[in-house]
Amino acid sequence: MSTTILSPTIAENVAGAGVNWVDPSNALTDDSTYASVEVLGLSGNLKLKTFEAAIPSTVVIVSLIVTIKGYASVDTQPNDGNIVYLRLADGTLSPGVEFSFPMTTPDEVEIDLTDDATTIALSADDINDPDFAIEIVASSDGIAPQHYYIGSVTLSIESAYYAPMVTTRSATKPMPKKENILEIKVTILDKRQSAA
Q1: Residue in 123, 59, 49, 111 with CA at minimum distance from that of residue 80
Q2: Which helix (H) or strand (E) holds 187?
Q3: Tell me, what CATH number does 58's domain have?
Q4: Total-model pTM
Q5: In Å, how far from its chain's centre is CA 151?
Q6: Is 26 left (phi over 0), alpha (psi -120 to 50) or beta?
Q7: What is the pLDDT of residues 151-172, one digit of tens each?
Q8: 98 in helix, strand or coil?
Q9: Nearest alpha-carbon partner for 53 in 10, 4, 90, 111
């Protein structure tokens, strides 16, 4: 088994419904700056991509963990129902996994997306594609907006290499030398003559 930890190099808002994240690129590195959103309902998708991965195509993905460092700042409002997705380069979106942000103090939360990866048949080649992405949607169904902050996102991949099976043939016994065959025949002939 081997573990590869990757960070995205591009962060952007996905056009569509929901409130856009402010300063999305602040979610790329853990440097005390944050992408943020104030939301009542659902935010737009924060898309993090281009992990610059170079995973051998011969490996099999065993597990996949997304780690988000961030927090929610309004402790009087709900902080659950947030969702993280995997998106393939062809647009395929995984079912998604719900999670809660740490409350008020920045901390890391790990989200296991192994089942999602299996559902969309995620391969090493998919992860290597620059358009492979993690997408995060923040949610709050309270009576007032919740404020969310993301400082960094990393992807931890555990993989195993499976070498192709090689069938080996058992070694055959060497053929006897010609002179040995001749010697056997002569011996048998001599015995027959003796018997006569």
Answers
A1: 111
A2: helix 178-195
A3: 2.60.120.260
A4: 0.81
A5: 21
A6: alpha
A7: 999 999 999 976 555 545 444 4
A8: strand
A9: 4
Give the whole-angstrom CA distance, residue 34 versus residue 9: 15
How does pLDDT run across 80-135, given as a tens digit for each residue?
899 999 999 999 999 999 999 999 999 999 999 999 999 999 999 999 999 999 99
What b/e string do you get for 49-82 counting C-beta neighbours within 10 Å, with b at 16 or more? bebebebeeebebebbbbebbbbbbbeebebeeb
Contact 33, 70 (CB under 8 A): no
- Long-range contacts of 97-101, Cβ-Cβ distance < 8 Å, separation of 24 or more: 99/68, 100/72, 101/68, 101/70, 101/71, 101/72, 101/148
Q: What Cα–Cα distance (Å) separates residue 17 from each residue in 20, 55, 61, 101?
A: 9, 34, 32, 22
Domain of residue 59: give its range.
2-163
How many domains are there within the chain?
1
